[in-house]
Specification:
Distance between the termini: 44 Å
Order of helices and strands: HHHEE
Number of helices: 3
Structural class: mainly alpha
Oligomer: single chain
């Protein structure tokens, strides 16, 4: 049993080594999906949320879309889940979850 575990660990280590070396930042190949998305239209930055983004943008390296999404999540957390509706015999509360991903260069 212990020998099987050691073999499994060795295989896992080899797999991780291959994965790390193939995703090395010195690699010259770049995926075609690495293009940055188009910026949001000005209409997305309307109202208080837009004012907040314009206020914070000069002092941060964050993308304006990321700032806007984080503002909405923070606002939702402050408002709480008090507002709800019925949906298919269930109480449905509002929730916004955002996952921000970046590419290190």
């Amino acid at each position: 049993m212990r020998e099987n575990a050691m073999v499994s660990l060795e295989r896992a280590a080899e797999f991780l080594d291959r994965s790390i070396s193939s995703s090395s930042p010195t690699s010259t190949s770049t995926p075609s999906s690495s293009k940055w998305p188009e910026p949001l239209a000005d209409a997305a930055f309307h109202g208080i949320a837009g004012e907040f983004v314009r206020m914070v943008e000069p002092v941060t390296e964050s993308d304006p879309a990321a700032i806007l999404l984080q503002f909405f999540v923070c606002f939702g957390a402050l408002v709480g889940r008090g507002d709800w509706t019925w949906g298919e015999c269930l109480v449905v509360a509002l929730a916004l979850v955002v996952c921000l991903v970046t590419v290190l260069r």
